[in-house]
Prior knowledge:
The chain is an alpha/beta fold and 368 residues long. The chain has helices at 12-16, 24-39, 51-58, 68-92, 104-108, 110-125, 148-158, 197-203, 215-226, 242-247, 262-272, 284-291, 333-339, 347-351, and strands spanning 5-10, 43-48, 97-102, 129-134, 163-168, 173-174, 186-187, 189-190, 231-236, 254-256, 274-282, 301-305, 313-317, 323-328, 365-367.
Amino acid sequence: MHYQRIVVKLGTSTLTSGAAKISPSKVFDIVRQVIQLRADGSQVILVSSGAIAAGREALNFPDLPKFIPAKQMLAAVGQVRLMGLYDQFFRMYGETAAQVLLTRTDLSDRRGYLNAHDTIEALLGQDVIPIINENDTVATEEIRFGDNDSLSAQVANLIEADLLILLTDQPGFFTSDPRRDASATLIRTISTPEIPEEIWNAADGTTTGLGTGGMITKLQAADLARRSGTTTVIAFGNEADILPRINRQEPVGTTILPVANKLEGRKRYILAGIRATGALSIDTGAIKALEDGSSLLPVGVKKVKGSFERGDSVRVVDLAGKEIAVGLVNYASKDLVKCAGRKSAEIEPLLGYTFGDEVIHRNNLFLL
């Protein structure tokens, strides 16, 4: 059994093999393993650190003050070099990669969330490998994810990944820091509804080499992912063929099992943003289509109530006002007023653009 959709987070220590600069041979090895995952039938999204380390190397390791503008400058230089390596190596296998830069506001804002989701889905639909990183060149302390561990967990939630792999410079999560405590033992599985307090305590204060996130950030990321229905594995990034082995569900690293299914996690997100003032009245044909598992199309919408923007959660009601469903809309209310009752092929001529044929895609809609 292989996982269908996998997010792989690559820490700086993995991409440098513990050295001070990016290791091209290690990047190539990661690319080779990703190709193997795809050959096994899995979709793969990379969340890659390493831009700042690549920038330091490009500028011959300058002595810079430790403040945000300097890091942003290094990231701007390094991002080009890092993506250049990925692009070169994926093209050697005849594959195409794409860069996606995100900030916290992209995923906390519902329109940004929907836009990011649609972009990544479009890339996967074209068999392109998304490579995601925090947009360090414009992010400030107020909007930073803080580390790519958190970013990877949010991406896993965004695209409903089955598996999140956090590669680090340790074989997994230990009862204490193995570099300080010889009696530390590897924890193979965490499956309890709540992560035990002693595990949180063990994670606090540990480090993982060159990156900004220690084991505490990886545990926090795993906790977020498990509540969205995603299995997480923390493993040693420099172990041979680690990605295919995890995909084959070999007992490597530490596995944190989900406590909710993906449907429940997405439903919670959509219901959390529902607006009482926004609603779409639909006809009986549209209701039956929704009950059969279809998306909501503009031809079935008879009335648009309230004011809302693309990405907002709105209620879907029948012509008598009874609530049928709730979902994230692809179009703002002012646009839907123009498209209501019309065929999907008419959206672009009416608006001058299109976000797709659906008013609400079936993956973003839940019957009540």
